[in-house]
Design a protein that fits this description.
By secondary structure, this protein is mainly beta. It contains no helices and 12 strands.
Length: 205
């Protein structure tokens, strides 16, 4: 099964599942609508897959102006035991285009495109298609972001922002962050790494 991850704030996901019984494909759309359409109810190759967005990035400062040096973005698929069944990663490249204004308290913001996608893992051969090659979007980063939730001030740290252009969800949304003991973004040498649950889990029928 392969999930095409459209990076909307609610991470609407479409999956194409290769069935083991007949070779047919099932298509499921999961998100706010809960729409679920299936061509058949046969088993698929992997019983459970939890999907995480993952990658890393490195920036450099020239005269106190950050520049994007390198990075990668992908999706990691785990089975029910927590073992990685497929890891797809593509290279992030700065397009040079000006990202939309308004990235909240951001230290930097760049427009990045994904290319050169590679796959590793025992189930990659059973997954169909790829949804991230050529994906072009604006990204940003802020050390600290505070906002009011009712009467409570919420403080997020090390926030990786994504600018959504999907449907009615135009704007900057936090894709990965750290909060009150929860860690999804962490330093790695001169750069940063992240891994954040996509909000999607698929169970075979």
């Amino acid at each position: 099964m392969r999930c095409f991850l459209y990076l909307a704030p609610l991470f609407l996901t479409a999956c194409t599942i290769k069935s083991a019984d007949s070779g047919d494909t099932d298509t499921q759309l999961n998100g706010d609508s809960g729409v679920d359409t299936q061509a058949d109810s046969g088993p698929c190759d992997t019983a459970v897959a939890n999907v995480y967005h993952a990658g890393d990035w490195h920036t450099e400062d020239t005269a106190d102006v950050p520049t994007f040096a390198s990075g990668q973005f992908g999706n990691v698929y785990y089975d029910a035991s927590g073992a990685v069944i497929c890891d797809e990663q593509g290279v992030w490249t700065n397009t040079g285009k000006t990202p939309p204004a308004g990235c909240p308290d951001c230290d930097w913001a760049f427009d990045l495109v994904i290319s050169g996608v590679t796959e590793t893992g025992p189930e990659c051969a059973n997954l169909v298609g790829s949804g991230i090659d050529g994906f072009d979007a604006a990204w940003g980063f802020s050390d600290v972001y505070k906002y009011q939730y009712g009467n409570t001030e919420i403080e997020l740290t090390d926030v990786l922002w994504y600018y959504s252009t999907y449907g009615g969800y135009m704007g900057w949304y936090p894709l990965a962050y750290n909060y009150d003991g929860y860690t999804a973004v962490y330093p790695d040498g001169s750069g940063w790494e992240f891994e954040e649950f996509s909000g999607y889990t698929y169970y075979c029928p």
